[in-house]
């Protein structure tokens, strides 16, 4: 009997965790509204560092926000961009601020990026 209650409890906990995770990452969820956010944007992404050039017209870009710091996780061998801060604009979108990471605009539905620094140039034109 204890084993059945333990199994039922584990199942309920897993169900609660899944529902909380899916609610916190809905496509209408604005990253700025949460202290923790994970969302995937899809579209055209690219990277060039002068030696290699990577382009993916059907790419995925995962955005992870913890507190006020954003990270951008690319696939297909493109280096990630981490620890980015944002400032809200009048239209409700957010624009990246800070040395070497300006050129990122994000909202609940789209992400546009043109970042160029000593490590290379990243571009993205993606939607959720």
UniProtKB/TrEMBL annotation:
Residues 1-22 form the signal peptide. Keywords: Signal. This is Lipoprotein.
């Amino acid at each position: 009997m204890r084993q059945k209650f333990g199994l039922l409890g584990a199942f309920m906990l897993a169900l609660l965790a899944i529902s909380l995770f899916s609610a916190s990452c809905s496509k209408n969820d604005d990253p700025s509204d949460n202290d923790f956010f994970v969302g995937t944007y899809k579209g055209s992404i690219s990277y060039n560092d002068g030696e290699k050039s990577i382009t993916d017209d059907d790419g995925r870009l995962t955005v992870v926000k913890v507190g006020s710091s954003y990270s951008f996780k690319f696939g297909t061998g493109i280096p990630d961009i981490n620890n980015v801060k944002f400032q809200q604009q009048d239209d409700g979108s957010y624009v990246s601020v800070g040395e070497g990471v300006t050129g990122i605009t994000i909202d609940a539905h789209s992400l546009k990026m043109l970042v160029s620094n000593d490590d290379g140039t990243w571009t993205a034109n993606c939607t959720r």
